[in-house]
């Protein structure tokens, strides 16, 4: 397809008018010229015939009496006609009888009697000489066509002049007439351009006529009215969406705040006062704790569904071991299953590749399915978990996949109701199922989370024969996430446990380490190369690094030197786990531990606990939160660990407290009146006296990419209150305080130097 024309519509209309007018004039005048030429030629032939007939009659006597001289004298009379150049008389036998020529000799023509032909520059004509029925011969005349050509030239000049005049007149008329058509169209184009530049859909085009262009103006104005109305409706919908989002955020905060206190304090009662409670009181506390967790889970599910429906649910894919995820979920369910004497049978195919997915959401999927399986299984039965790989050529979702099947022997689901169980707030209504509590949200979230990963969830079940739910996930993430850019801070909402960076090129070695760390307080992150490991070490700031020496590209020793020479990573504990046995060099370069392969998982875990778990140094913590119950909860969790907590119920009070005596750590809520946590964090970072104090965000709000973007570079950790456990707060505070202590020690060494 050629490039679009850049000629204006005015030029196009004028060109069309001029072209058609010129074509009509040229065709008409050309036809006239052709007609005139034919008429002139016809007149010339007729006049020559008349002369030939008259002259032939005068030559009858000469032919009858065989008098050549008389005939010649008759022919010489033709000299009076300037156009005639030659004449020939032939007798009845066709022999040349007499000839007259004006100038240069001309060959006698050979044409039939009664015909005329153009030969060269002459019109040659032959006419029979007859008298009273007797044939005496023929006369031939040669007539010059110069006068005819002159007349034709005259006609051409006249026609050319007339053509120029008519085309000029047509051009003037075209320039005037095109405005009748192009004027309204150009007005429409200007209005369109103005609307595009100003985004003002209230503009309208004036209707200039009642023809098709007028209809176009009416249609354009109607379209603008519809766009204006839809823009207004969109703005109203956006406003309602913002109000809904604000309402959800407020409800999230208002609902979760008291629930966090209920769960937190009941957990403290269960764990720390268990010897002071009798069985009945312990049962009451357990009921409070389980009911609070159930209600918090329900609130979280409803809010998650709302975010999914609004398109605000974000994915945070990372590489992890599905084996470790299954271990984590089953460890959470073993307490419930053991109380009902339900065995959990886990079989994981060896050598499963690490999964690139959202860890939190995958664990939520597995937890929901396993929780349902345990809930609907009879006491004393077994719930089976099977994890296996599906090659690309057999995967229903294309590409290499990992499947996890959860099999129970419970009440089962009728095949006609299989689609219902994945709908929000819908449950299969059977006599057996009504005895189980639930809202019908768990499986709806399972389906939506799996769909967001580009996976599939299937159900095989018959009434009374149990159920098999199978989740199929692609090994490589194929979902959609609005914010894919990794943040240069550890976000605790992905996995609240301290992060261990494993720099190892062998996949099997990483899977082995990740499996060993699964049930512990550590979470593993994989880097395949030295370059990737250095980048993740700077961005994640992990609690520890496990480093192999033999790596592709940048080797382990070079990675270690780079880690120890970088201010941002020099204080991160590093343990070498490698086949290379060079302990002396490793210790000289500053490693905290040196393990030679093969090494078992238990040794790795104990080594990590040793190199990570040092004393926290600074124990002074400032808590800035407007929820009094959370202050009590933090006291209950941190004071037994040896921390001194100073309390501020507003942002201004907290800033003053920090200015009076800078703490080792700040725990900050985001949603506060008067001055929110974002402003407090900004002021802490801008003050040179407090800019290096670690900030831990603890909030009841859903931490999305927008919040993380606003906080980028202003805090060291984020923890959602609804996901906060008793041990997590203390472990996170301990890790951040240790980092702060290392920074202070480094600054002190620099001052001494």
Furnish the topology, listing elements before pairings.
Layout lengths: L8 H50 L1 H5 L3 H9 L7 E8 L4 E6 L14 E4 L2 E10 L2 E11 L1 H53 L13 H61 L6 H31 L7 E4 L1 H18 L3 E6 L6 E4 H18 L5 E9 L10 E8 L33 H11 L3 E6 L5 E8 L24 E5 L3 H11 L5 E5 L2 H11 L3 E4 L8 H10 L8 E5 L4 H6 L4 E4 L4 H12 L7 E5 L3 H11 L5 E5 L2 H10 L4 E4 L8 H10 L8 E5 L5 H7 L5 E4 L5 H27 L1
Parallel strand pairs: 7-9, 13-14, 13-15, 15-16, 16-17, 18-19, 18-20, 20-21, 21-22
Antiparallel strand pairs: 1-2, 1-5, 3-4, 4-5, 6-8, 9-10, 10-12, 11-12
Helix pairs in contact: 1-4, 4-5, 5-6, 5-15, 6-9, 7-8, 8-9, 10-14, 11-12, 16-17
What level of helicity do the residues show? 40-55%
Query: What is the radius of gyration?
Result: 51 Å
* CATH-derived architecture of the largest domain: 2-Layer Sandwich
- What's the level 1 CATH class of the largest domain? Alpha Beta
The helix count comes to 19
Please give the alpha-carbon distance between the first and last residues: 73 Å
How big a fraction of the residues is strand?
15-25%
Tell how many strands the DSSP assignment holds.
22
Description of the molecule:
By secondary structure, the protein is α/β, with parallel strands linked by helices. It folds into four domains: 11-153, Beta-Lactamase (2-Layer Sandwich), CATH 3.30.450.20; 316-470, Heat Shock Protein 90, CATH 3.30.565.10; 499-612, Rossmann fold, CATH 3.40.50; 620-752, Rossmann fold (3-Layer(aba) Sandwich). Helices cover 49% and strands 17% of the residues. It contains 19 helices and 22 strands. Strands 2-1-5-4-3 form a five-stranded antiparallel sheet. The protein has a five-stranded mixed sheet with strand order 7-9-10-12-11. A five-stranded parallel sheet has the order 14-13-15-16-17. Strand 15, helix 12 (556-565) and strand 16 (574-578) form a beta-alpha-beta unit. Helix 10 (507-517) crosses helix 14 and helix 16 packs parallel to helix 17. The chain is elongated. The model is unreliable at 430-436, 481-495 and 745-753 (pLDDT under 50).
